[in-house]
User: What shape does this take?
Amino acid sequence: MVNVPSPSRRNHAMTVPEFVAAKTRAEPLVMVTAYDYSQARLVDEAGVDGVLVGDSLGMVVQGMPDVLGVTLEEVLYHTRCVARGLKHALLVADMPFLSYQVSLEQAVLNAGRLIKEGGAHAVKLEGGVRSREVIAALVRADIPVMGHIGLTPQSLRRLGGFRVQRAKDQLLQDAQAVAEAGAFAVVIECVPAEIASAITASIPIPTIGIGAGAGCDGQILVLHDLLGLYPDFRPRFVKSYAELGQQIRAAVRAYAEEVRQGLFPAPEHEFH
Ligand code: KIV
Assistant: This one.
């Protein structure tokens, strides 16, 4: 059995075998997204087990309406920034739309770049049964893969919107296919809690839920949602543990007022 020290006591980056072993020890896995060095340092120091450079960066960092336009170069850039800020967490980089669907060869080369040039420990890609060949090809190339089933945001055009996915048999087959193809973990997004629990009980690899209830082996949230940076966007599955959007706005407003009133800089901020 792999020994899994708690994040605060771990003095090395979490390994893929340690991540997997957390399931057998029934230790909840904590993941969050991050997109730059400062965020990476903060979430790593907070003791998360895994950090995902998600293609959600298209929406929360770039301000786009969906994830479809995110490129491999962009994920690579953000992965490099995040890698520099992590000491303990497992770093997973998302494979963006069309970076793994065209051919197995292209998928291996692209995933390899996220590992070699980005410093990621693993990659994540979407799809269950439909992605089993590509998962197996990456694993054959020694690239650890995290699957992603349920609501897969890259399928937005086919699905017609962001909706809870309820097709139980299909979801169970997807999870099974991802595990059999050799993935070390799987994200389950926007799936009824009962189905996510059934999936968790049916596969040997950790399930990481987002909008999939408390029965998963771990949870992931988008950092901007967790911090309350966009209060106008709060889906049911999100819990904001801070309201940093309000705090940032108030801080910048206070700075602007002090500059306009001649109160900043004060003598203690000046060189003489
Ligand atoms: O891109 C992302 O941030 C994700 C998580 C929501 C799982 O895929």
About this structure: Residues 33, 52, 54-56, 94, 187, 189, 210, 220, 222 surround 3-methyl-2-oxobutanoic acid (CB under 6 Å).
